[in-house]
């Protein structure tokens, strides 16, 4: 099936082999024996994952793409002694799958050229399953990639930045121009790598941390003493210097400290 024939699927297909190889090579292959590629499309990235030592599983929602992959990557043509165990093609929606059950709670890396419309949902699911995801590498709309990697003090620093960086070290790797896709998107893309922190637990209540971060950025132009008033802060607590700041001014560690203060306030 040609790329042209697949335009109706609404996804932008990478056509530059060197960029696909660079994305695959961004994997460290440390700390896991499984690689899950989300949305492989026509397999341009898949072919560079197969030589890896880890078992490769690809998950594709579109039936035509699944049929194409099975035809393009017949197991008998994969030069591996354990090809049946090494490569699996699954038809399904990553957002609806229980990946812990799918991989028997084994560690896995997630990779992909992610569809723009669900890319942030994919990140949040990786965060939710962080105990089993030591590494996450992929291509996003550049704006989203920058938002994930951005540090405090920036206008694009927000919920996605803080919640991702609380558990992962994020590196923005490189920018990809529209010209290497078919059809070309209207914006640049960006490739990032997330490496799970050695200690990916928080010293505060995680549900409260998520709630504080989301509530603060829902009114990002206001000072925290105003945006967080739903937490029924005491008058003395509201006078703490941190509450005179706006959310984009706080580092991840400061959000953790903020959550600790609110928790001690009796929330």
CATH superfamily of the largest domain: Vaccinia Virus protein VP39
Helix content: 25-40%
> What's the architecture of the largest domain in CATH terms?
3-Layer(aba) Sandwich
The coarse overall form would be: elongated
Cross-sheet strand order for the largest sheet: 4-3-2-5-6-9-7
Order of helices and strands: EHEHEHHEHEHEHHEEEHHHH
Tell how many strands the DSSP assignment holds. 9
Tell me what you see in this structure:
The structure is a single chain. With 267 residues, the protein is of the alpha/beta class. It folds into two domains: 4-196, Rossmann fold; 206-264, Helicase, Ruva Protein, domain 3 (Orthogonal Bundle). The chain contains twelve helices and nine strands. The protein has helices spanning 17-25, 46-49, 63-72, 83-86, 99-102, 119-128, 142-149, 159-165, 206-218, 224-227, 235-238, 252-264; strands spanning 13-14, 34-38, 55-60, 87-91, 108-113, 135-141, 168-176, 181-182, 189-196. It has a seven-stranded mixed sheet with strand order 4-3-2-5-6-9-7, with helices on both faces. Helix 9 (206-218) crosses helix 12 (252-264). The chain is elongated and about 65 Å long.
């Amino acid at each position: 099936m040609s790329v042209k024939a697949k335009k109706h699927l609404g996804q932008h297909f990478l056509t530059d082999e060197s960029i696909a190889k660079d994305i695959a090579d961004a994997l460290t292959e440390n700390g896991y024996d499984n690689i899950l590629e989300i949305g492989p499309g026509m397999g341009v990235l898949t072919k560079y994952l197969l030589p890896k030592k880890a078992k490769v599983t690809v998950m594709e929602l579109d039936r035509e793409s699944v049929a194409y992959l099975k035809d393009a990557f017949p197991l008998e043509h994969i030069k591996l002694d354990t090809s049946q165990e090494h490569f699996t093609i699954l038809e399904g929606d990553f957002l609806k799958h229980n990946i812990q059950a799918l991989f028997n709670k084994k560690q896995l890396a997630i990779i992909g050229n992610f569809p723009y419309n669900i890319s942030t949902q994919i990140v949040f699911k990786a965060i939710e399953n962080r105990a089993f995801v030591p590494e996450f590498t992929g291509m996003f709309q550049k704006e989203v990639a920058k938002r994930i990697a951005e540090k405090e003090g920036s206008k694009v620093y927000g919920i996605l930045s803080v919640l991702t960086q609380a558990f992962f070290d994020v590196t923005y790797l490189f920018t990809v121009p529209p010209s290497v896709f078919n059809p070309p998107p209207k914006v640049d893309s960006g490739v990032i790598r997330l490496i799970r922190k050695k200690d990916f637990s928080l010293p505060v209540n995680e549900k409260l941390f998520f709630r504080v971060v989301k509530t603060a950025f829902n009114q990002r132009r206001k000072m925290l003493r105003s945006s967080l008033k739903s937490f029924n802060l005491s008058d003395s607590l509201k006078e703490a210097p941190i509450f005179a700041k706006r959310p984009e001014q706080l580092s991840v560690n400061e959000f953790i400290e903020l959550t600790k203060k609110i928790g001690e306030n009796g929330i």
